[in-house]
Amino acid sequence: MHPLDNTNVESFTIPGAKVFDRYFQCPLDYANEATSRKIKVFVRHLVPVDKVSEMKRMPFFLYLQGGPGFECALPSSASSGWVKVAFEKGYQVLLLDQRGTGFSTQIAAESLEAQFHTDDEKVDYLMNFRADSIVKDCELIRKRLTAGRTDKEETRLTLLGQSFGGFCILTYLSLFPKSIQNAYITGGVPPLVDDPDKVYRALYPRILKKNVLYYNKFPADIARVQKIHKYLSTNGVTLPNGGNLSARRFLQLGLAFGGSGGYDAVHAIVQSAANDLDRLGKLSFRTLSTIQTTQSWDTNVIYAILHEAIYCQNKHSSRWSAERILNEAPFSKIFEWRLENLYDNRPIYFTGEMIYPFMLDDYAELRPLKNVANRLAETRWGQLYDIHVLNNLEGVQVAGVSYFDDMYVDRKLSEHTASEVKGFQQWITNEYAHK
Q1: Strand stretches in 106-262, DSSP E
Q2: CB of 105 within 8 A of CB of 40?
Q3: Candidate list 195, 197, 406, 410, residue with the active-site label
Q4: Cis, bond preceding 347 (omega within 30 deg of 0)
Q5: Residue extents of the structural domains in the chain
Q6: Which helix (H) or strand (E) holds 352?
């Protein structure tokens, strides 16, 4: 049965759209497709309410979520935003939960423990959850949904990728360029590197600039962060879910500096925590709960255990790149967290989108995966991008926006990548933030 003819699919409406919840059986390991176990991949299929009868002829617009390791949320409405624009251009929209996220065979410490007996099995399993496998899922879904179409142009996808979704798009262009008609990237033109070292050497100075801007806006937070840091360095603090709130973990709140409103959000937590120490002599449950829910590495573990792997290809491994680069000069002196090395009048700088080995002890949901994550950090990964294919693209329009002050994706590395993709139209702006 053609997927679009399946009347058993759960469906409902939101303003402007009929939504179909679709599941696809995909091979876990595409290198051994015939014998591989299957996993379930979930897609929300949105169709304009007045065009449901035209589904079999309308082209598809596929959205790839940022991350890695985050599911794609259901929009509250299709009557505004980019979904409305896609509808007006004649598309139906696919919102993919990338494998391992949301309803697509979600990965968590508990699910891995239920399925596998050894860490070897877990590592082998998790090696199939990078961009290359995500893209192959998309290609399988594209073929199934466009089966029976005689016009080849009507079988091609238009793609939109945010952040890590843009990384996936470049892999899609490398593997299946003839399956794509248009590709649009927002804040996610990936660096064409073989490992993350160059990425982090460029990232730490950008985070330093963000810290300077933060403390310029909230100068009283210099003393507040020092007080909080000293407290966390001299007291064991447990979060509601059993995780440790160490000084280093607290400084990871700087991840928010790259998004709209991020400075204010961090300031609110800093102000709340400092106020707790003044009135209670400890951090309140409310503050601890806010910090825990602000940091998503417990709920989206792929974001931690496979984050550095998104930069690895051509038989290279990450080897805890962010930690290694942090210990290089001058970063080891600038981003110092050890209490004995800090001075009373020195701002303590937050870190950002880096993954560190200490997280495997501090985050409750990462602890069971400590050995697995260490093994993955030593894994030598296969190819993600084919520069020859990207240099010679034909018949596909590619455009992307990069941001001057993007904390998450280096603009200069993105400009180099854009120069390697034939016909890439790049817009660089400071009008918007990464998210």
Answers
A1: 157-162, 180-186
A2: yes
A3: 406
A4: no
A5: 3-191+385-429, 197-378
A6: none
pLDDT tens for each residue of 283-327: 999 999 999 999 999 999 999 999 999 999 999 999 999 999 999
What's this model's pTM, rounded to 2 decimal places? 0.96
For residue 379, the model assigns a pLDDT of 98
434 is catalytic: yes
Q: For 194, which DSSP code?
A: S
Q: What DSSP designation does 245 have? A: -
CA dist 13 and 19 (Å) reads 6
Are 90 and 59 a contacting pair, CB within 8 Å?
Answer: yes
Q: How far apart are CA 406 and CA 134, in angstroms?
A: 25
Cα gap 247→233, rounded to integer Å: 6
Tally Cβ neighbours within 10 Å of residue 251.
21
Report the mean per-residue pLDDT for the chain.
Answer: 95
Structure tokens at 65: 């979520």
Give helix 131-145 / helix 164-175 axis angle, nearest 10°: 70
Catalytic residue from among 45, 229, 307, 434: 434
Pick the CATH number of 3-191+385-429 from 3.50.50.60, 3.40.50.1820, 3.30.830.10, 3.40.190.10: 3.40.50.1820
pLDDT per residue as tens digits for the range 361-404: 999 999 999 999 999 999 999 999 999 999 999 999 999 999 98
Tokens representing 72 are 């794609």
In 285-409, which ranges are E strands? 397-403
| Catalytic option among 163, 246, 317, 402 | 163
Give the integer Cα–Cα distance in Å for 358 and 10: 43
Place of tokens 């064991």: 236
163 is catalytic: yes
The CA distance from 249 to 351, in Å, is: 9
Helix, strand or coil, per DSSP, at residue 323: helix
Tokens representing residue 368 in the block: 């069971």
The one-letter code for the residue type at 375 is R
Backbone phi, then psi, for 144, in 5-degree steps?
A: -70, -45
Tell me the β-bridge partners of 19: 12, 46
Flag whether pLDDT at 344 surpasses 90.
no
